[in-house]
Amino acid sequence: MGTYIGQWYTHQTVGAYDGHWLRDATVTDYKSIKAYFERARTPDKGKPLRSWARIFKDGADYYVKNWGSELCRFKPNNTVVFTATTEEVWHSSNTLVSALHRAMPFAMVRIAKGRYRIAHNEEVIKNAKESTRSECYTRSEWYTWLKKEAPEYFQGITFNLKTGECLNRRPDDKLIPIPEKRKEWLRALREFKKGIKVRAKMNVFEGISDIVATGGNIGYYDRPDWSHGIYKELLFTSIRDAKYPQDLLLGIAKSHRPDHSWTWQRPSPAEVVVATDKICNTYSVELRRQFGVFEK
Question: Is 0.85 topped by the overall pTM?
Answer without folding.
Answer: no
